[in-house]
Structure formats: C-alpha cells, structure tokens
C-alpha cells in the first residue's frame, strides 16, 4: 500500500532502529524481568501468561496482539510493586512438523527448531518483558519426560484408563484420524472412505471430575461469561431416567434393552425403540441377518462425530423385534436400529416419541410410524408438521394426565422405580479424554506391553522415554511403529521380550500443564510444590476464544489431577481469563479473482487500486480476520522493521477494546508512528529546559497542565486495571495535546518557572505511564530528561495528586420549596455562606423570592440549596 512514512523527514528525530535494540539489551543486562522460583522478598505475586505459540514459522498479527496485551499487564503490575512471572515457551509437538518433514524430506525437529529460533527473535524484537531464562519447548525431553512422569502419577491415582473406543480409521494411510481430519467421510490426505474401528487407547478419566469442573465455573468470576457457558454446555449435565424395556421374546441371552431419556413424561407417546448400530443387541441381530449387517456396516462408514451424525439423513432398519411398554398393558413396540443413535451416550438406545422430539419426528415420518401427542401446550395449539418440545400439560397419558411436564417426569420415574423398570439418572455429555495418537512428533506414552505381564508402566527412573531421531516418513502410518529397534525392549517386570507403546500423546496434553512447569522449569519433579504454591494460579491468562473449550477444560482437568495426585495445591489454573478479538484487514483480488497480499496492491491518487506497478484492476473485498487463505495478512516482522516495535504495539492497542476485533490499516500504523516522533520531539523540547526549581507560586498555565497530567495518571491507571487499553491510549493522546498546548503557553511566557516545572513533571509522568505500551520510547524519553538515572522498566507506577484530579467546580442545585429553580457553580467544599448568597442572587430564584419571607435556608454541601418561604 501507499508509502506512509515517505512523508517523514529523511532522518527521523527518534531513531527506533538504534534505540529499541539498545533498551532491549539494557533490560536484559539488568535482568529486569527475571524472577526466582520462590521469591522471599514479601512482595505480592502476579502471574501473567499468554497462550504459548505453536512454532509454525513466523509470528502473525494475532500473536502481536496477544503478547502486547500480556506485556502491558506484566509491565504495569511490575510497576505496581508485584513480583511478576511472565514466561514464554513453545507448544512444539504436532502434525504440521511431520507434514513439513514429509514434504521437505527433513526432520520435524529441524523444522521446529528453525521456526523457534526465528520466532524467538521476532518476539524479542517486540520488546516483551519476558523472563527468557524460563523458556522451554514441549518437544524437549526435559519437558516431555516430566510429562511422562505425570502420566505415571495419574496412573497410580486411578486417573488413567485403557479402553476400547471407536475411532476414525483411514484404511489407506493405516492410521487413526482426528475428527477434523475427516472431510465428507474421507481421509483428508488419502481421500479414502473412513471406517469406524475399535481400538485400545489410553484415556484420562476427565469424567471423574465432571461435577467439580462444572460447579467450579461459578467461582471463575474473572472469566468471560461466554466461555463459562461454553464449558458448562460441553460438560453437559443432563437429568433424566434409565428405563428397561423387556423384549417380548429374548434374543439369545439378551432379555431387555435399557434406554436413557430426559423425557420420561412422554412415555405414553412412545412409538418405537431405537438402537445404536454398535449396540450389542444390534450386533447380535446383525450376526444372523445379512440385511441388518449391511445396514450396520453402512452406518459405520459415517464417522464418529456427533456433527456428522446430526447432519446425515436419518436412516433406520426395522429388526422385527418388539418390546413391552411399562405403562401400557399389552402394547408391543417395534425395535429399530437407527443411524442417529450414538453408542457412547447414555445407554446407546433410545425410546422414540415423535410428537415431542424433532429427530424422532423426522424418523417416524420417513418410516410411517405413529405420532401420538401427549403434551398439550399451555397456550395455543400443537404446531403442524413438527415436534412440540415446549412446556405444557400431559394428555393421553393415563396416570399422568393433567400434570405439568416437570411433575410428570418425577411421577413417571417414581412409578418406574416401584415397578422395578427404571430409575432417575444423571448423565454427562463430557467423555473421557482419549489421548493416544499414532504419530511420531509427540510425547511417547511411557508404557510397555508384555505378553506375560500385560501393560507395564515404564518405571520413573527409566524416564524419559526419548523419541528416536532416525525415523523416516516415506511410508504411511506411525514411524515409531516402523522403526527397526526402538520399540523392542525388555519388560521392566519379568525382563522378557516386550514392546513399547508406539502411540504418542495428543498434543493438548503438552499444553495442559506448561503453566505449572513455568513456575520452576528446572525442577527435578514435574512441578515444584513450593514454586506453584507461590505462583499459581495464573492471575491473568490471555488468548484466543478458539481455545474456550478444549484447551481450557484439559488444563483445568490436569490441575485437578495434579492436585489429586498430591503435586500441587490449587485446583483451578487460571483465576482470570481474557479472550482477545481478531486482527482484521481488507482483502484484495486481482482481475482473475486470485487473492492478493496487501503488499502487492497500490492505491492510486484517483482512489483506484491496482496490482503494484501494473494497470491490473484490484477489487477491494471485505474486511476479514487475517488469514493465509485470503492473503490479507500483514507480516509483523516487516512492520517492526519499518516502523519499530513500539509503533506496532501502540497501534494494536489503540484501535478498539481488546476483546473486540481490530482493523489493521496502513494509515493507522502510520499515525501511530507519527505519534512516537511527536512524543520524542516534545521530550526534546522539555529536556532542553534543563534543571528547574519549582517556584512557590503556581501559574494558571502550570495549574492547567498539572491537572491534565494528574487526571491522565488517574485515567490510565483505571484503564489498565480494567483492560481498556484503547482508553489508556486515547488519554495519552490527550495528555500529549495538553503538553503541546503548554509548549505554546511557554513561548508566550518564557519566564513562567512554574510552567517549566509542570512541563517537566508532565514528561516524567508520561514516560512512566506510556512505558507498559511503548517501553522503548519511554526509556529514550526518560534518558533525554535524566540521562543515566536508571531504567523506566524499574520505576514505580506514579501516584496522582487528588487535589489536581478533582473536578474544578461542582454544580449545585438551587430549589425553592423543594423545586429546582436554578443552579450555581462552585469549587467543591466551598463555604455555605458564599454558596447560599450566590443561590439567592441567581436571577430566576431571586425573582421567585422577591417579597417573600424566607423561613429556612437548607444547604447540602456541594449539592443543594433549598429555600423554604412563608405563605
Ligand atoms: C425420549 C424422548 C422423548 C427424548 C422426547 C427427548 C424428547 P440430552 O439432553 O443430551 O441428555 N438420547 C439419549 N441417548 C441417546 C443416544 N445415545 N443417541 C442419541 N440420542 C440419545 O438428551 C437426552 C435425550 O436424547 C434423550 O431423551 C433421548 O431422547 C436422546 F419427547 O428420550 B429422549
Ligand atoms: Zn513382563
């Protein structure tokens, strides 16, 4: 886009290119941001953490926003006298590294470490106040070995299980796929039709904590309401009943079918019972009936996701079997196998009541099953052509007739219980967390399989189980499995020949406890009790809303699991959570519709946009979240190179409240750049005043500037406390304007010593309260004023003077007989006599009082004067 800084003088006054590295070096040399694992200086602690990055190659604007927000908090808290822990690391395992290795014929480690080196440099050039001595990457054995130890502790505590579960199996690649890797029922890489397959996998027993994970959400009052709601829905507590339906004729040794229902009140409207395709009864039927078997096989190709099941057309198979009804004597209800019933929820079977459940309605309509309404809406009629799911009164329902829905649920459950056909039950949507992945670039699961001893955990003193380096990616499947020697070991128990587990952990495991490791990254055990007692929980966690569910839930589970296994004293990891908005940008397309990078587009004087240096017309598209696919990205590295880190930081903070999306514009960043120059020029002008003795007498101009200064300190403090960083920026622009104004006043009255002192004070304060946002410029300005006086990074946050921030005057209401008749303006705390006299003289009031006898004069300081008159 247009060359925004070409309008600037050739050599800018403030040369960020030399200044920024200088101050970064100074902070580093003074170890400003280094803290101890267990500080003993008695200061309060504050732990600021941004979600650590995946080392994908380069930082993007989302990172810049995320880490700038965190850095403002960290620098502000430090200035307020806290010991601040602000660490950084790398979420370094994962599939992209394996894919890159495959494409480039290199090694995932090489790719990952190259990226880390590059991104570390970029983050350091941003001037973040990070304790780099704590840095680690999750792909280091020093980290993932401790993770293996945690796994063993969880194992001992009963929080790890090995279970069979259904997975998405890619028959061509010979691997399990995550749900996101199944696209339209096919493997994302091979394109093969995906099958459901049962596999033995490792699980973390997150469901054991479901009730606490739900209940504790109420106490997370510094989390966005939206995130708490999403977590609650994901955990999904559901209250209902388990009902057993006896088969009219047993099938082999199966005599009844259990269903889970949240609507036992609708039992009289039941018209079918449906089994999941993997239900044992369905399988038993399939074993004898080729048609049923074919239907089950077809369902299996559907993938395992609830989303896939929800969007697929409902299909069923009538088994010919029937069940009895608990309340309707002699009724025989058909049993179906249906593709919309999930095996891993409730009991894997449902009773269908088409009148009051939309899925059941669709199913019944398709197969001509009866639709019997049993709930009459409180108002209006039953809807036509769809299920009614609202409240109402029961009808056509025997002993439930006339009861409300809630009462009927209890009544139905009580009756089922008395009959021995069922009971009340609570279910949770939350599933145990399957963590086995058939991948190389992850943390090996520390287990050995022995023919004699079964699954044997690797003894702690044999950790870490290190990934072999010599692997190849030329074959589909898991390279750990293909490795000629790695998996062949002796059993730790019987010493016989055994094989290692070749699965690695889901990479979400790596990010579920890194915050605890940051408290003592060198500690011999995974976490140090002393260090986490001091630092945990994280006071302010900052990241994207895309992690609202899984990452946060897993981290909450891990914290509880670490507590249950005796390693940590807290149960919640993040006391405060802030979710930032996206960075957006205009998008551009060339004449042929291809996406263009902003750097390829030139805006002409006549307002038209063309491909730079050509005549090709560019269509300016919507403003959207920056994304590689739309090419509407701006490279932070290039911005910092051209304008400096402070400009990038300032602009990204200025545009909008941080929880909202912000639009990156070239004009915005150029404006921020000009502001850095303007501040520096102001600082030069003030520094040239030299030493000034503050005189006893103030002057109106000095008083005006001092008021602006102190009000800005108050406002910026409040804004930073409440994450209103854009407000802080706006207030600082105002202070700069007041300082420019004062500079003009000073030219008019060169001997106003009070004004000179006020200008110096303004600059001193400005440097300190801008520092969290533009830390380098703040140091440079401070250096102009007080060379060699030490670093702003070590300065305390300034206090403001109350007498200068209070309003200059208050508006006092003047009443006659309690009715508002006028107002007068006075400085707060003015004496009653003066206020009453002015009130009496107020023209409108004076007219009303004329010729009247005043019985009483009421004065409420700074608020009201009321005159009570006779007659
Ligand atoms: C009969 C019924 C009648 C139902 C009615 C609803 C409305 P939540 O709230 O998510 O717990 N269901 C139970 N297990 C299922 C499974 N494995 N796969 C698919 N659906 C299943 O939902 C519980 C309801 O979802 C249950 O209540 C059951 O349908 C269905 F008018 O039972 B209901
Ligand atoms: Zn053994």
Automatic annotation (TrEMBL):
Q: Does the keyword ATP-binding apply?
A: yes
Question: What GO molecular function annotation could you give as one example from this UniProt entry?
Answer: aminoacyl-tRNA deacylase activity
Query: So which domain of life are we looking at?
Result: Bacteria
The Leucyl-tRNA synthetase editing domain, residue ranges: 233-415
Question: What residue intervals hold the motif 'KMSKS' region?
Answer: 625-629
Reaction(s) catalysed by this chain, per the record, are: tRNA(Leu) + L-leucine + ATP = L-leucyl-tRNA(Leu) + AMP + diphosphate
Domain Methionyl/Leucyl tRNA synthetase: from-to ranges: 48-182
- The protein depicted here goes by the name Leucine--tRNA ligase
Assigned protein family: Belongs to the class-I aminoacyl-tRNA synthetase family.
Q: Name one GO biological process term.
A: leucyl-tRNA aminoacylation
The record's section on SUPFAM superfamilies has: Anticodon-binding domain of a subclass of class I aminoacyl-tRNA synthetases (SSF47323), Nucleotidylyl transferase (SSF52374), ValRS/IleRS/LeuRS editing domain (SSF50677)
Write out the entry's keywords from A to Z.
Answer: Aminoacyl-tRNA synthetase, ATP-binding, Cytoplasm, Ligase, Nucleotide-binding, Protein biosynthesis
Please report the stretch or stretches of sequence annotated as the Methionyl/Valyl/Leucyl/Isoleucyl-tRNA synthetase anticodon-binding domain.
703-835
Where, by residue number, does ATP bind? Answer: 628
GO cellular component terms?
Answer: cytosol
Q: Does the keyword Cytoplasm apply?
A: yes
Q: Where in the cell is it found?
A: Cytoplasm
- Cite the EC number: 6.1.1.4
Supply the gene name: leuS
The record's InterPro entries line, in alphabetical order, gives: aa-tRNA-synth_I_CS, aa-tRNA-synth_Ia, Leu-tRNA-ligase, Leu_tRNA-synth_edit, M/V/L/I-tRNA-synth_anticd-bd, Methionyl/Leucyl_tRNA_Synth, Rossmann-like_a/b/a_fold, tRNAsynth_Ia_anticodon-bd
Under the heading HAMAP family, the entry gives: Leu_tRNA_synth_B
Domain spans labelled Aminoacyl-tRNA synthetase class Ia: 430-586, 625-664
Motif mapping: 'HIGH' region: 53-63
């Amino acid at each position: 886009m247009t060359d925004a800084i070409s309008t600037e003088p050739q050599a800018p006054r403030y040369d960020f290119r030399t200044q920024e590295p200088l101050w970064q070096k100074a902070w580093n040399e003074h170890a400003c941001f280094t803290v101890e694992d267990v500080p003993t200086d008695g200061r309060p602690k504050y732990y600021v953490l941004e979600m650590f990055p995946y080392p994908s190659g380069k930082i993007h604007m989302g990172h810049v926003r995320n880490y700038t927000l965190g850095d403002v908090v960290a620098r502000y808290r430090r200035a307020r006298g806290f010991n601040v822990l602000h660490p950084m690391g790398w979420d370094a395992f994962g599939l992209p590294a394996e894919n890159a290795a495959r494409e480039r014929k290199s090694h995932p480690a090489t790719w990952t470490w190259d990226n880390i080196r590059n991104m570390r440099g970029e983050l350091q050039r941003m001037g973040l106040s990070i304790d780099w001595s704590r840095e680690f990457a999750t792909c280091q054995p020093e980290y993932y070995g401790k993770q293996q130890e945690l796994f063993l502790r969880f194992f001992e505590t009963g929080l790890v299980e090995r279970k069979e579960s259904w997975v998405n199996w890619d028959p061509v690649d010979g691997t399990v796929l995550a749900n996101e890797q199944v696209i339209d029922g096919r493997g994302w890489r091979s394109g093969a039709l995906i099958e459901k397959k049962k596999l033995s996998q490792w699980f973390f027993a997150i469901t054991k904590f479901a009730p606490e994970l739900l209940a504790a959400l109420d106490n997370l009052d510094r989390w966005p309401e939206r995130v708490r709601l999403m977590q609650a829905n994901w955990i999904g507590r559901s209250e209902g009943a388990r009902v057993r339906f006896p088969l009219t004729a047993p099938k082999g040794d199966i005599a009844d079918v259990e269903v889970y229902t949240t609507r036992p009140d609708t039992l009289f409207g039941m018209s079918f019972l449906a089994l999941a395709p993997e239900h044992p009864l369905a399988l038993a039927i399939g074993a004898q009936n080729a048609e049923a078997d074919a239907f089950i096989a077809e369902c299996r190709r559907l993938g395992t996701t609830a989303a896939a099941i929800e969007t697929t057309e409902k299909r069923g198979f009538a088994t010919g079997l029937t069940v009895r009804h608990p309340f309707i004597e002699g009724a025989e209800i058909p049993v179906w196998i249906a593709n919309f019933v999930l095996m891993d929820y409730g009991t894997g079977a449902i009773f269908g009541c088409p009148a009051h459940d939309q899925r059941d309605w669709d199913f019944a309509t398709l197969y001509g099953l009866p639709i019997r309404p049993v709930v009459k809406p409180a108002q209006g009629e039953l809807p036509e052509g769809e299920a009614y799911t609202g409240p109402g009164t029961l009808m056509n329902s025997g002993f439930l007739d006339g009861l409300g829905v809630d009462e009927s649920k209890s009544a139905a459950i009580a009756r089922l219980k008395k009959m021995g056909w069922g009971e009340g039950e609570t279910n949770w949507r939350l599933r145990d967390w399957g963590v086995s992945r058939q991948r190389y670039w992850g943390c090996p699961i520390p287990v050995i399989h022995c023919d004699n001893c079964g699954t044997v955990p690797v003894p702690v003193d044999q950790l870490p189980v290190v990934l072999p380096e010599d692997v190849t990616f030329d074959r589909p499947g898991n390279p750990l499995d293909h490795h000629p020697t790695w998996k062949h070991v002796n059993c730790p128990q019987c010493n016989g020949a055994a094989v290692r587990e070749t699965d690695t952990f889901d990479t979400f495991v790596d990010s579920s406890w890194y915050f605890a490791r940051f408290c003592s990254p060198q500690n011999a055990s995974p976490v140090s009790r002393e260090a986490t007692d001091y630092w945990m929980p994280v006071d302010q966690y900052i990241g994207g809303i895309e992690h609202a569910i899984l990452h946060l839930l897993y981290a909450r589970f891990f914290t509880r699991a670490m507590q249950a296994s005796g390693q940590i004293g807290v149960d919640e990891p993040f006391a405060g959570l802030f979710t930032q908005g996206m960075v957006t940008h205009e998008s551009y397309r060339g004449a042929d519709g291809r996406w263009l990078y902003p750097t390829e587009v030139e805006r002409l004087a006549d307002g038209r946009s063309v491909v730079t240096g050509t005549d090709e017309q560019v269509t300016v598209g919507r403003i959207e979240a920056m994304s590689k696919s739309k090419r509407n990205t701006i490279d932070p590295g290039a911005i910092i190179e051209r304008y400096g880190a402070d400009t990038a930081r300032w602009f990204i903070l200025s545009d909008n409240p941080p929880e909202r999306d912000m639009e990156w514009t070239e004009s915005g960043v150029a404006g921020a750049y000009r502001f850095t120059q303007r501040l520096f020029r102001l600082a030069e002008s003030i520094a040239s005043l030299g030493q000034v003795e503050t005189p006893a007498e103030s002057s109106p101009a000095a008083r005006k500037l001092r008021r602006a200064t102190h009000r800005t300190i108050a406002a910026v403090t409040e804004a930073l406390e409440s994450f209103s960083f854009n407000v802080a920026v706006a207030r600082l622009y105002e202070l700069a304007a007041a300082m420019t104004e004062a500079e003009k006043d000073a030219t008019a009255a060169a001997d106003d010593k009070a004004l000179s002192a006020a200008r110096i004070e303004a600059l001193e304060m400005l440097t300190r309260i801008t520092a969290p946002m533009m830390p380098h410029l703040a140091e440079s300005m401070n250096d102009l004023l007080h060379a060699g006086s030490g670093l702003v990074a070590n300065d305390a946050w300034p206090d403001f003077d109350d007498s200068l921030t209070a309003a200059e005057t208050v508006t006092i209401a003047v009443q006659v007989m309690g009715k508002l008749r006028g107002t007068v303006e006075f400085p707060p705390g003015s004496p009653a006599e003066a206020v009453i006299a002015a009130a009496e003289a107020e023209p409108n009031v004076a007219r009303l009082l004329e010729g009247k006898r005043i019985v009483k004069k009421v004065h409420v300081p700074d608020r009201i004067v009321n005159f009570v008159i006779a007659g």
